[in-house]
Amino acid sequence: MPGTIPAGPVVAPSASDAPRPAARGREAALMRAAQALEATFLAEMLKDAGLGAVPGAFGGGAGEEQFASLLRTAQAEALVRAGGIGLAERLFAALSRDPPAGASAERDLPGGGDGPG
């Protein structure tokens, strides 16, 4: 019949089906941090590639250099928003992995956490 609800078991989604708000917030924060790191990396690569270099004797001095760095940062952020080079996704995947059982962040540092290594 039109307009009737099909018979069958009604299954409510369980709490484990959806990510908890705290987990979603942590994942969002990790992704923002990964994207910020990718943007910083790209800005440095653009700088090393010579983007925004002051041309010859007619450059604008320290002010132009400062604004060139702002331009590179804005361009790097735009690159990340457009998909970037995939670095943010790789960083996010690495940061969001749970550490192995019994591992501590200190032991995972180079040198075993015993000081400079």
Q: Segments where pLDDT lies below 50 for 5+ residues? A: none
The helix/strand series, from N terminus to C terminus, equals HHH
Radius of gyration, CA atoms, in whole angstroms:
24 Å
Q: What's the average pLDDT? A: 76
What is the overall silhouette? elongated
Label the structural class.
Answer: mainly alpha
The largest β sheet comes out as:
none
- Residue share in helices? 40-55%
Q: Please provide the count of β strands.
A: 0
How many DSSP helices?
A: 3
Beta-strand proportion: under 5%
| Spatial separation of the terminal alpha carbons | 75 Å
Q: Can you characterise this structure?
A:
The chain has 117 residues and is mainly α. The protein has a domain at 22-49 and 63-96. It contains 3 helices and no strands. The longest helix is centred in the first third of the chain and has 28 residues, at 21-48. It is elongated, with a radius of gyration of 24 Å.
